[in-house]
Protein 1
Amino acid sequence: MRDGQTPKVVLVTGASRFFGGNVVAKLAKEPDIDRILAVDTMTPGRDLRRRMGRAEFVRADIRNPLIRRVIDGAAVDTVVHAATLARPPAGGGRAVMKDLNVLGAMQLFAVCQKAMSVRRVVVRSSSAVYGCSAKDPAKFTEEMSARTPPRGGFARDMIEIEGFVRGLARRRPDIATAILRFAPIVGPRLASRGVQYLRSPVTPTVFGRDARMQLLHEEDAIAALTLAARTTRSGTYNIAGDGALSLSQAVRRTGRVELPVPFTVFRTAGRLLMGPVMREFSGEQLDYFHFGCGLDTTRMRAELGFVPRWTTVQAFDDFIGGAALRPVVDPAWIDAAENKLLGLLGAGTGAQQ
């Protein structure tokens, strides 16, 4: 479907989860799409199922070769793979997560390769593939790779999955394949666990560092996947909101008290201080709050044609509102104090002149 033709039969994986389910709900409102198949091993919740409307739920495991019967039987032409897991599922460890992510993607793309009806494949990936280190550029373009190999399991899974997608594109050049690398996602309904650590009254940060964060609103993530399913060209796209937010600014905007500590303390004692939220930090999240990660989104706008509605700061503020955080220190008071201090410094400079 490189000519931009509207898809007729769309299959979305991970339909019982946030991304997959909401993409299904949005596609179900498109009258020019004939069928939407929502695939998962678990049944979506009542509210999510209601919002899916006319979409057909199919209980199936993409790790099972029988998924081919679903794709061939419905003559699926567009596949949106949104079923990747960022952390191990409840009751499962890293091995289960890797099995679901890597084996599931490998089996799904093998079926897509053999199914002659498939013409478009969209994959949800992550900026975690770039890793986080002191050697990183200010902004990563899609052609760049991690300067230091990522140590987190999720990032390694995404790198493998992207490799499968590129293999599919080589073997079936008639299939348009798109990889969407999302920046960390925040919003009132879903927030990255790494950003939720700002709920604590005292927020530890890395001494001598001020990670530069670029975020994506949850609604923009859903909109980008939906747009890609309808109009995508082959390629890899960084997806992030405009602008950036330093970690110290984020702490201030939530009214928290920043506690700079050495990184060795941040990843050890910091976890004890923060309770269950920080104890569940992945390797990617620890590195992110150490170094941050910037994304070049030129291709997102110029080639994919996607423009986020929310900037990084707006997305973060909406997360704060949805999380109903009660500030320990009023951010307005901090701003007023800073402005007053700057005024005094300016007056002092003027007097010296």
Protein 2
Amino acid sequence: MRTERNLTRLDRVFARLDREPERPAHIDVPKMSRHRVALLAGTLAFYLAIVWLVVTTSWLVRLDWQVMFFRPYQQWAEIHWFVDYYVVLGQRGPTAVMVAAWLGWRSWRQHTLRPLLTLGASLLLLNITVGAAKIGMGRLGPHYATAIGSNEMGLGGDIFPSGHTANAVVTWGILAYLASTPRARRWLSALSAVVSLGVGMATVYLGTHWLSDVLLGWAAGLLVLLALPWCEPLMARAEAGIFDLRDRWRARRDVPASVPVSPVEAPVLLKPLGTAAQNETAGRPPRAPAYLAPGPHTARSERTPVTPVGSRRPPQSDRVGRGTTSAARP
């Protein structure tokens, strides 16, 4: 009796790596629900509150200076090497490459460009919003502070909000946003929150950001994630357009271009030369008779040469014409 082999965990993993035959239909696209809108409004209010507390040099700015004078990188110097590596999880380049590789495989496997388009849209929104806030507020970092107790705003810096923190929230939060099941979404949301929280605290530990920079960075990244459902229709149209261009390019590449052939003309019937000559002769009008002067006419060869009048050449009377028998010379 033949029994089927039990699949091991490794076999199941490799089976999951196989490409799906068609785009899965069970993956739901997040929509802008009332709960999400309320969360977006609350996060925006928190964002504006942080900016107001820093602009007015409130207790939050005093807390920033207290943390800076505490110098965490000197208090816990033994973990400095680990924090130096951990903060890379918030840098734009390495994290974007890692997440893009994973989402690119998902796009290939699921026959959809939505994961990659979502990553591109989120990073574009992040660059626009966070970059504009950094340039507009111009706050200096702890290492470049000029006056103790000052909020360091409008001095040409680019530290507020924290780009590392916002990038960590968006980059790792995309994995939770694109999760295909509610359970995976919950686990990935918790994981991205822990990673982004650790990256923010790492920048405070290293002294590259104020504590308020990190708080505003968390809010900025969360605003981008919450606003992504508004971009879904645009991403769907972009995906349809890209697939349409791909199909037209494949059709143009697979079907060879047809060479235009000139139409065959009707065959020309060739006639024999003799028949053509006779037809031409028969078709011509009769020639007028040539005018001949009266009198006997002799051939040119029988005429006697005559010396023209006025010539210096002596007359040659002994010369006979052609065709006559000349007398034998002595």
